[in-house]
Amino acid sequence: MTSPLTSYHPSNLLYGRHAVEAILSQKDAPDVTALFIQENRKDARTQLILKQAKARKIPVHPTPRKVLDGMVDGMRHQGFVLCCSHPATEWQSNDLPYLLKTLSEPALLLILDGVQDPHNLGACLRSADGAGAHAVVAPRNRAVGLTPTVHKVACGAAKSVPFIEAVNLARSLEETKAAGVEIVGLAGEADQSLYEIPLTGAVALVLGGENKGLRRLTRTNCDRLARLPMLGTVESLNVSVAAGICLYEVCRQRGKT
Question: How far apart are CA 222 and CA 64, in angstroms?
Fold first, then answer.
């Protein structure tokens, strides 16, 4: 009998709690052939994921943590690894409402309005993973996707954080607001500093692309604008640096630092 550990390919693995929950909650999810879960886990979040897997009749394999570490080459898996029949690293814009419905804590989204440098996107994904963001959202057009360079810079975060490509970013922002998530856009000319805004509730942080900032329609769909204090001579920060600062301010306010 073939061991389930020999039947996967690394490119078909998806890991991390948020990413696994997002895949299992998708209406039109890719075929999942197995769920590897860290053995002896009995917490509430694990029970929820097991319930999702059972509903979809997905084989579940309790697995030692060291084995999971080896499967994902030491990346941060949080005890959950999915094996899909094909690479499952990208989501579509209609997946966002389903993802938001699965959350048992206030949402934290990073929305990138037109980031075109793959190094910046990779760094943003890495920061999003570190801060526990539930997803990164970006427009499908006029923005970089998950290129090999993005994967390399992200150091595994491109598989652990759902990356949702929005066909219409303005519509995705409207749907996000309808789900009770506050949209906070980063703009240098904003009256309020980010540090003056309460971020303990469900929030989506919106950052513009390189050089251009937020587009007009994106700005219009924000509930409020905020700025990062600039005390030197430069006018703005690199988008990936700004994303990291914003995400970890949310962590600080939520007592997760």
Answer: 44
Rg of the chain, C-alpha, whole Å: 18
d(CA 219, CA 116): 19
Q: How far apart are CA 47 and CA 80, in angstroms?
A: 12
How many angstroms separate the CA atoms of 233 and 176, rounded? 36
Determine the structural domain holding residue 9 and report its residue range.
4-88
For residue 15, what are the β-bridge partners?
Answer: 81
Q: Among the three residues 64, 88, 112, which one is the final residue of a domain in this structure?
A: 88
Is pTM, for the whole model, over 0.85?
no
- Evaluated on CA atoms 18, 238, 202, 98, the torsion sign reads negative
* Burial call 130-142: b when 16+ CB within 10 Å, e when fewer: ebbbbbbbbbeee
pLDDT at 3 over 60: no
Sign of CA dihedral 246, 204, 105, 14: negative
Higher pLDDT residue, 247 or 26? 247
Other CB atoms within 10 Å distance of the CB of residue 172: 24
Instruction: Give 65-73's long-range contacts (Cβ < 8 A, gap of 24+).
Output: 65/38, 65/39, 67/5, 67/36, 68/15, 68/36, 68/38, 71/5, 71/8, 71/10, 71/13, 71/15, 71/36, 72/10, 72/13, 72/15, 72/156, 73/10, 73/156
Domain total of the chain: 2
Residue pLDDT, tens place only, 215-231 = 999 999 999 999 999 99
Specify which residues 182 forms β-bridges with.
203
